[in-house]
Amino acid sequence: MKRYFSGLFGLVFLLLFTGCVKKPEDVFSQNSAERMDAALQKASKALLNNKKGWIIKYFPDLEFGGFTIFALFKSENEVTLTSDFGENEITSSYAVLPEAGPLLTFNGYNKVINVFTEPGADNGGIGNPDTGMKGDFEFVILEVTDKKITLKGKKTQNIIVMEAIPDDKDPDEIAGEYRKASEAFRAFQRFKVETAKGEKALKRGLLDVGWFDQLELSTFQLPDDANSELLSFRVTPGGLEFYKEYELEGITFQQLSYVSPTAGYPLGYYTNDNKTIKIVAVE
Question: In terms of DSSP H, where are the helices of 1-93?
Fold first, then answer.
C-alpha cells in the first residue's frame, strides 16, 4: 500500500510538472523559416528606409587599415557606392540572402568595394597578387536598427559597422568632408607618439602600387618593436577612429581627435580627450 501511494504521488507530480513545461511551439511561435524571413525583411527595410544613405566603416584585412564607403540603397537590388578615397559613384547590384543567418552581399562588380576583394593582379597591384587586400563583399548581418547595422565579414570575420546618415545632413557634403580629411592626412609623411614617458617614432604602413601610385595605409606601428601590435584605423573629419580599443605606451584609446597646428605643433596632432597621448605629424 505504501508503495502504491508513493507511485501514485510520483505519477501526479509528473503530470503536474509536464503540464507546466512549455512545449517547443510555446517558446518559438515561429518556425526557423519564418524567423529567417522576418530577419531578412527587417534588414531590407532598414537599408531602404534611410533615404540619405549609410556610412560604412570598412576594414579589409587589418594590415591595410580602414576606409569609409558611402552606400545608398536605391531599390531591393540596386545600390550606389562611393568612398573617401575617390569621388566615383558606381551603381551595382546587392542582395539580402538567407544563409546560416541573414547575409548582405554586394554581388555585382563595383570597383569601390571590389578593389579590396579582388586579387592584386587585378586591382592595380595592391597587396598580394593572389589575395589582394583580402577584403569582404559578403557580410553576415549581426544586428539591425533604424540607425545602425552591424555586420561581420564572411571571410575576414572583421566587424563592419554601418551608420545611417542623418536626415538633416547632405550626403555629398559628408562624403566631401571625409575625402578632405583623408587627403590632408595623406599629406603627412612622418609621425611620432608623445606620452608622459617621452616620445617615439611611429611608422605608418605604406605600399608602392600602380593604382594609387603610392598607397599610404591607415596603420601605425612602433618601428623599434616588430612584435608590437599593428594599429588599424580610419581617417574621419574629426580625427582618427581605430578598429578597436588599442594600447600604446600603456595608454588605451579608440578615437583620437585632430588638434589644429600651433607654434609647438606646426602640423597639428591627434589626441585623446585628456591629452595623455598625442600622435604628432612631423615635418
Answer: 2-20, 24-27, 32-49
Report helix, strand or coil for 108: coil
Q: Which residues contact 203 (CB under 8 A, 6 or more apart)?
A: 191, 220, 221, 222, 223
Per-residue pLDDT of the chain (283 residues; tens, 9 = 90+): 444 434 444 444 444 444 444 444 444 556 888 999 999 999 999 999 999 999 999 999 999 999 999 999 999 999 999 999 889 999 999 999 999 899 999 999 999 999 999 887 777 677 777 778 899 999 999 999 999 999 999 999 999 999 999 999 999 999 999 999 999 998 898 999 999 999 999 999 876 554 444 567 899 999 988 788 999 999 999 999 999 999 999 999 999 999 999 999 999 999 999 999 999 999 7
Q: 199: which 3 cell numbers?
A: 616620445
pTM for the full predicted model: 0.86
Chain centroid to CA 243: 7
Give the residue among 107, 106, 104 at the shortest CA–CA distance from 139: 104
Q: What is the dihedral of CA 164, 78, 104, 131, to 10 degrees?
A: -110
Cell matching residue 10: 510520483
Instruction: Please check whether residue 125 is in contact with residue 115, taking contact to mean a CB–CB distance below 8 angstroms.
Output: no
Residue 256 in contact with residue 240, Cβ under 8 Å? Answer: yes
